[in-house]
Write a structure and sequence with these properties.
This protein has 427 residues and is α/β, with parallel strands linked by helices. It is built from 13 helices and 15 strands. The strands form three sheets. It has a seven-stranded mixed beta sheet with strand order 4-10-9-8-7-5-6, with helices on both faces. It has a four-stranded mixed beta sheet with strand order 1-2-3-13.
Length: 427
């Protein structure tokens, strides 16, 4: 173990998790690769938890940050801020929400916290619907609506949270049904739930559950939910912290797979838009965003430095059609991994879309999660030069694959080959 690891353990909380038996210090990156303190190069298939969205050390972002830092780094929202207004205009236009207003935060946790404040204030209700197996951040309110025990350290909450079926297609009481029957059963469950509670403020849902292991419902589920929610005036919050900006390939936002009943009332975002700089935010209809009747500001949300990075990153993403690249290269990578999985008894499922891919591992011959195998694969992949993530519901046994959206076909094949070797070693 390194001296840095000993120092880390001495001054940080015990619950601040590190990957790997011998944790690594990442010192620099370029494109889809990073290097550790020993000079070892890795192909990065996790991007700082889906945050390095375009590429490491992207010249366009580096240039924008450097130039902005030479002018002014920060002034707070108490002053007019041109980069913040320019990025807000772009995000509002891309959001699909009519008469959209944008508020910037520094993280996805804070964005979801703000969305909950808006929804509960607008609706005058403190009951919130959330999905089982969900994750929405680490603040007190976000933990209170997180439906994943591994990431929920307390049952105390300022909110009353009711959990809905539907976020996981291949597990649970409706897993055996067809897609149409699955949606119908989940909708009926939602209707039944609403008959037993005071009217909730909102349903918050990730279109693809991130920490939950990249699980998702059939396309159209949240549109069907929205029809029911609108009957009761309940808001729909789409948590796009991990699914936004084209990562799923088929859509720019994850909610667009469920768009037949219109856009969400509120969208939250973070991670990829900053390409590593701290940007989060909320988009909502003006009447919802403006419902607060007290003053508020953000000291660091929308700071000039991060807004310059976000603008440069978004421009690069759109000009180089990285959504299309995620669809094309991600589709090839998913099929390659499914071909491998068909030969291995411990791989229960390869799922996902675009460059957001989950590989769920179970004990061979059973449907039981295999967290030990997931850890072993993570370690083996690292030894061979590939960084991936992990997650999952009842027990952490899903590998999470989410490279920068500029991933090439050759890099996808290289990563798939390393991952195949790690999976074969585990099974």
């Amino acid at each position: 173990m390194s001296d840095l690891y000993d120092r880390h353990r001495a001054v940080t909380p015990d619950w601040l998790a590190l990957y790997y038996e011998d944790p690594i210090e990442i010192t620099h990156g370029e494109g889809r690769h990073v290097w550790d303190a020993d000079g070892r190069r890795y192909l990065d298939f996790f991007g700082g938890i889906l945050t390095t969205m375009t590429a490491h050390a992207l010249p366009e972002v580096t240039k924008a940050v450097t130039e902005q830092a030479g002018r002014i780094i920060h002034s707070s929202t108490l002053y007019l801020n041109r980069p913040m207004v320019e990025l807000a205009e772009r995000v509002a236009q891309l959001s699909g929400i009519p008469d959209a207003r944008v508020f910037f935060t520094t993280s996805g946790t804070e964005a979801n916290d703000t969305a909950l404040l808006l929804a509960t204030t607008y609706r005058r209700a403190n009951t919130v619907l959330a999905m089982r197996n969900s994750y929405h951040g680490r603040s007190f309110s976000a933990v209170g609506i997180t439906g994943n025990r591994g990431w929920s350290p307390t049952s105390l909450s300022p909110l009353q949270t009711l959990y809905v079926h539907g976020g996981v297609r291949t597990r649970g009481p409706f897993a055996h049904l067809s897609d149409a029957e699955f949606i119908a059963a989940c909708v009926e469950d939602l209707r039944d739930l609403l008959g037993h509670t005071r009217p909730p403020a909102a349903l918050i849902a990730e279109p693809v559950q991130g920490v939950g292991g990249f699980t998702s419902p059939p396309d159209g589920l949240y549109a069907a939910f929205r029809d029911v929610l609108q009957e009761h005036g309940i808001l729909w919050i789409s948590d796009e912290v991990q699914t936004g900006w084209g990562r799923t390939g088929d859509h720019f936002w994850g909610w667009q797979a469920h768009a037949s009943s219109g856009p969400p009332d509120i969208v939250t975002f973070a991670k990829g838009i900053g390409n590593g700089t701290s940007i989060g935010g909320v988009v909502a209809r003006a009447e919802i965003m403006n419902c607060l009747d007290a003053n508020s500001i953000s000291t660091f949300g929308g700071t000039q430095l991060t807004m310059a990075a976000g603008l440069a990153n978004l421009n690069y993403l759109l000009e180089h059609d990285l959504q299309g690249n995620a669809r094309r290269v991600g589709g090839l990578l998913i099929e390659r991994l499914r071909a491998v999985a068909a030969q291995l008894p411990g791989v229960r499922e390869v799922r996902g879309r675009g460059l957001m891919i989950g590989v769920e591992l179970t004990r061979p011959g059973t449907d039981q999660a295999d967290p030990q195998a997931a850890t072993a694969v993570l370690e083996a992949a690292r030894r061979d030069g590939l960084l991936i993530g992990k997650g999952g519901g009842h027990n952490t046994s899903a590998l999470r694959i989410a490279p920068p959206l500029s991933l090439t076909v050759a890099e996808a094949e290289e990563g798939a080959a390393i991952l195949e070797g790690a999976l074969r070693a585990a099974y």
